[in-house]
Amino acid sequence: MIRYICRRVLLIIPVLLGAVIIVFTINYFSTANPAMIKLGLSASDPAKLAAMEAQMGLDQPYFVQLGRYLLGLLRGDLGQSYVYDKTVAELIASRIPNTLRMSIGAILLSIIAGIPLGLLAALRQNTAVDYATTTFAVLMNAMPGFLVAVLLMIIFAVHLKWFPVSGVDSWKSFVLPVIASGIGPITQNARMTRSSVLEVIRQDYVRTARSKGIEENKVIARHILKNALIPIITLIGSSLGTCLAGAILVEMIFNIPGMGMLINSSIMSQDYITVQSCVLVCAAVVTIMNLLTDLAYAAVDPQIRAQYAAGAKKRKPHPGAAVP
Amino acid sequence: MNLLEIKDLTIRFDTEAGSVHAVNGVSLSIEQGETLGLVGETGAGKTTTALGILRLIPDPGKIVGGSILYKGEDILAKSEKEVLDIRGNEISMIFQDPMTALNPVMTVGAQVLEVIEQHERCTPEEARRKTVSILGKVGIREERVDDYPHQFSGGMKQRVVIAIALACNPKLLLADEPTTALDVTIQAQVMHMINELKKEFSTSMLLITHDLGIVAASCDKVAIMYAGAIVECGTLEDIFDHGAHPYTLGLFGSLPRLDVKVDRLTPIDGLMPDPMDLPQGCAFHPRCPRATDVCRAENPGAAELSPGHQVRCHLASTHPGP
Fold this sequence. Notes:
Radius of gyration of chain A: 24 Å
Number of domains of chain A: 1
CATH architecture of chain A: Orthogonal Bundle
Number of helices of chain B: 12
Largest sheet of chain A: none
Number of helices of chain A: 13
Strand content of chain A: under 5%
Oligomer: heterodimer
Largest interface: A-B, 25 and 35 residues
Structural class of chain B: alpha/beta
Number of strands of chain A: 0
CATH class of chain A: Mainly Alpha
Order of helices and strands of chain B: EEEHEEHEHHHHEHEHEEHHHEEH
Number of strands of chain B: 12
Order of helices and strands of chain A: HHHHHHHHHHHHH
Helix content of chain A: over 70%
Distance between the termini of chain A: 30 Å
Shape of chain B: globular
Distance between the termini of chain B: 34 Å
Radius of gyration of chain B: 21 Å
Strand order of the largest sheet of chain B: 6-7-8-3-9-10-12-11
Shape of chain A: flat
């Protein structure tokens, strides 16, 4: 098991390397000249421009530039912003806590709201509760995130004045953004929980559990939920990516200085080195989340745990595939 | 007094497509220490009857009539909480398919422990010791107690299922085709084990099967079920040697015989009727070689041929047995 974790952590390196190379290459071939952006108006002087290009290493071949960037990354140097007088690392360090707070809050919300909602719908299948949950889920899932964000803002911030309209002053500032970015994952979790629980509830082992005379809430917690959790974990793992992508819109609407805003303003001001490093950081966060997802599988499903312990070579077929 | 006495049990599944008449007026009784074999084709309502005893009929099924007297008290009249105390404790069930009957994310020990903790007042250490002991009785060594079901073979899983059923020394065991999903070699072992444990705990058993060989080897009494009704019941001897219902005779007729050379088996012609649309009169008449006009018009009542040997057939009561 420890060996499996080590292997998975090592596997993060090639994934991130791939991401770096792709993003770097796209930037390299973009038409914008970083030296020009950095110099601003004084870029009209060819001598100054050439000097700046040489200083930034832009006159070097592609591989040398890539190599320099990678070496910088190893030292934790994400480069120097073209626009601000700050390193990219500083910019990201000041922005990422807000985004993580928002995204993790959204994921937690999607777990504590989505799973019980889906469970309730499944246990009361084909009743008013079920139909109401399904309608809510479909409606919310069909609405674009920015529309939900704007509606929340109008209702709860502008009219009811429960929460601030924008900015980050206190925890209250995060309530609406968390709901806005969590609404998608909530509905997806609810839908997935419902279908997963409905599948598990018909399994023979649930009937066995009932035949033991244990109370229904124990049957649900020990036998139904634990088995239904596996597909839900996949979804929760992937919802971090969704939240990070959605952060660009939600942060702009609520004026929260986070990664999304940083990426947006960097694109607008052609600060490509910052964009490049932001993408890299997001890739790293998502990769780590994927690792955690895989470990959560192992915690829930002993068969997966056994596979991990045995290593990838001796992977046994799923017993469901065997004809009984 | 009979340990279990089912009277006129009727179970119906109301679906959008119509009502499925799964169990239609089943009556049977089991005495202390006795094994009753419930025999019939797939879909005859055997499993539904057993689940009805535990009040575990899946939706949209409902028990619409009859009574199930256990130790003289009607299970159908009890509260949900009282039924919980009976399930797994007084009456427990062995399920047909061991591959799917165990929870894949719980160790087998935990699944046995769960039922002991539910019904017996004991410390965790005692519960654990009991778990190890009952698993030992079904032939599972202590070092495998903390293994998961996927690490066991089908036969071993069925042993675990049996251990769960026997963990609290039930008075009545409902064994639903306990060996159908197993290899023939394992079948004999498992049946032998069930019979031994049954003797040890002096448990009564309702053995559901369609294997007449198992019935002959393990049962005291036999009930033949067809289309949700018991068509004939009696002692092993009554049914095997003096079977009177044409369906019973058909079942025996379709068995291969060692003493007579036959090229083809003689199956019962036709199929079981659709439980959503049972035929008028005797449910068996469309397949019965001797059906008369009375059979087509009227459902026969139970007639007693000899003490304890009952048959539901218009013909059997007038001309008993061939």
